[in-house]
Amino acid sequence: QVQLVESGGGLVQPGGSLRLSCAASGSIFSIDAMGWYRQAPGKQRELVATITSRGSTNYADSVKGRFTISRDNAKNSVYLQMNSLKPEDTAVYYCNARVRDYGMRRYDYWGQGTQVTVSS
Q1: Burial bucket for residue 35 (CB in 10 Å: 0-12, 13-18, 19+)
Q2: Can you list the residues of the chain whose pLDDT is less than 70?
Q3: What is the per-residue pLDDT for 73?
Q4: Distance (Å, rounded) from C-alpha 26 to C-alpha 64?
Q5: For the purposes of burial, counting CB atoms within 10 Å of the CB of 90, is it exposed (0-12), middle (13-18) or buried (19 or more)?
Q6: Which residues have CB under 8 Å from 60's CB, separation 6+?
Q7: Distance (Å, rounded) from C-alpha 62 to C-alpha 15?
Q8: Cα–Cα distance, 99 to 29 (Å, whole number)
């Protein structure tokens, strides 16, 4: 009974910026981790960035120094600030949350995906 709602995707020129947001709602006791994944046409889904309940982050090498993941636990939300965007960043971006419900059952939930297109 958890839903993830993503927003912030769109069309941007190379070198531009976008900020993705994802808010989780429903029967949530705690969120172990949240992250962003992306899938480009003809490619496998890949990890972009994750952030744990302790605040530890990790990034794909291709986005280090350009993207920043952050969270607001009070809002059960995660954000991805994307700067210096490149055409190769074009993909559908998916929000992920590893959630524990009140029965201490753990589930992975996924957002619906938001398109990011970097093009002139």
Answers
A1: buried
A2: none
A3: 87
A4: 32
A5: middle
A6: 46, 47, 48, 49
A7: 15
A8: 7
